[in-house]
Design brief:
This protein is an alpha+beta fold. It is built from nine helices and nine strands. A hairpin with a 4-residue loop joins strand 7 (241-246) and strand 8 (251-256).
Length: 301
C-alpha cells in the first residue's frame, strides 16, 4: 500500500468519526426539538440539560471510535512508508565492481565467482575466468571459471608438467594428475539450457571421431548420451551457476544452482569438458588464455 492510499484511508476515518460525533448530539439541536420544548412551556436550557445527559454515553463512544480510527490510519500510513523503504532497498542495483577476499569478478562480463570452493573437504582455488560469446555481435552468454585444489602437492605437479600445460595437451595433463577440478559457468544472459547441452554435445562428438577402437568409441558415445540426459528443460537465469565437478575417480558430477543433477563415470566426458574451455579448439580463447596463465601463476605462488 502506498503512502497516499493510506492518507486517503485516514481521511475517510476522520469523516466517519465526525459523523459519529454528530449522531451523538454534539451538533446543533434540531428545530423540531426546540418547537416541542416551547409548546410544553419548557426553556431551551431546561430541555438541553437532560438531552446533554442522555448524549454523554454516545459522546464517549464517538470519542473512542475517533481515537481508534485515527490510530488505525497512522498505523496504515506507517506500514506503507516502511514497505516503500523496503522496495527502494530491493531496487538498488548490485555492485558489479566489488573484488574482495571472497569473490572475484570476470573482467569482461562482470560475472561473480567465489575465490574458493569446498569439494569433499578439499579447498579449491579459482585460477582464472573468461567469457563465452556467440555470433559476430559477440553477445556474452556465460562466464567460465576454473578451480583447482589449493595444495602444495598440486603446485609441484604443475611445475613438473609445465611444458604440457599448452592448449593441445593441457586437458589430458590435468585429468591425469588425478586431482579434483571444477569448472563453473555463470550465466550472463538467460540462455536455454538445451543450447548449452547441444554445444557441449557437438564438442564431444568432434572428439569421438579421433577414437579408433570401435568398442572404445561406442562406450564413449554411451557416456556422452548419459551426460546429455542429465540436463533439465528450461532457461538459466542471469547469475545462475552450472558446475562440472571432475572427480579423481573419473566421475563427472553436474550441478545447477547448487543442486546435483547426476553423475557420469567417464574419463572421456571429463577430458572433453575441460578441453572445451582450455584446449586448442576452446569456445572461449579468453578463458583458455586466462586458465593456462592462471595455472602457471598458481604454481609459482
Amino acid at each position: 500500500m502506498s503512502f497516499w492510499t493510506a492518507f486517503r484511508l485516514s481521511g475517510s476515518n476522520v469523516r466517519i468519526a465526525a459523523a459519529s460525533f454528530a449522531r451523538a448530539g454534539l451538533s446543533r439541536m434540531r428545530p423540531s426539538t426546540a418547537a416541542a420544548a416551547a409548546a410544553a412551556g419548557m426553556s431551551m436550557s431546561t430541555m438541553a440539560a437532560p438531552a446533554a445527559a442522555a448524549a454523554q454515553p454516545r459522546r464517549m463512544r464517538a470519542l473512542a471510535l475517533a481515537a481508534a480510527s485515527g490510530f488505525a490510519a497512522v498505523s496504515i500510513a506507517a506500514a506503507a512508508i516502511a514497505a516503500a523503504k523496503r522496495e527502494v532497498v530491493r531496487a538498488e542495483p548490485p555492485n558489479t565492481t566489488q573484488h574482495d577476499t571472497e569473490y572475484a569478478f570476470d573482467k569482461s562480463s562482470g560475472a561473480r565467482f567465489p575465490t574458493h570452493l569446498t569439494l569433499a573437504n578439499t579447498n579449491l582455488a579459482l585460477v582464472g575466468t573468461g567469457v563465452r560469446t556467440v555470433t559476430f555481435l559477440q553477445v556474452q552468454v556465460y562466464a567460465i571459471g576454473l578451480y583447482v585444489p589449493d595444495s602444495a602437492g598440486l603446485k609441484l605437479a604443475i611445475q613438473r608438467h609445465r611444458d604440457q600445460l599448452v592448449p593441445s595437451t593441457a586437458a589430458e595433463t590435468l585429468i591425469n594428475l588425478k586431482q579434483p577440478l571444477s569448472i563453473r559457468l555463470v550465466a550472463v544472459r538467460n540462455p536455454d539450457i538445451k543450447h548449452l547441452r547441444e554445444a557441449l554435445g557437438r564438442a564431444m562428438a568432434a572428439r569421438l571421431k579421433h577414437i579408433q577402437d570401435p568398442v572404445e568409441r561406442a562406450g564413449a558415445q554411451m557416456a556422452v548420451d548419459q551426460f546429455k540426459a542429465l540436463f533439465p528443460q528450461g532457461k538459466i537465469a542471469p547469475g545462475d551457476a552450472v558446475d562440472f565437478v571432475l572427480r579423481p575417480d573419473g566421475v563427472l558430477q553436474l550441478s545447477l544452482r547448487g543442486e546435483s543433477l547426476g553423475t557420469v563415470a567417464s574419463k572421456f566426458v571429463q577430458t572433453s569438458i575441460l578441453d572445451t574451455y582450455i584446449g586448442a579448439s576452446s569456445v572461449s580463447l579468453e578463458a583458455q588464455r586466462n586458465f593456462l596463465s592462471g595455472l602457471q601463476a598458481f604454481a609459482s605462488q
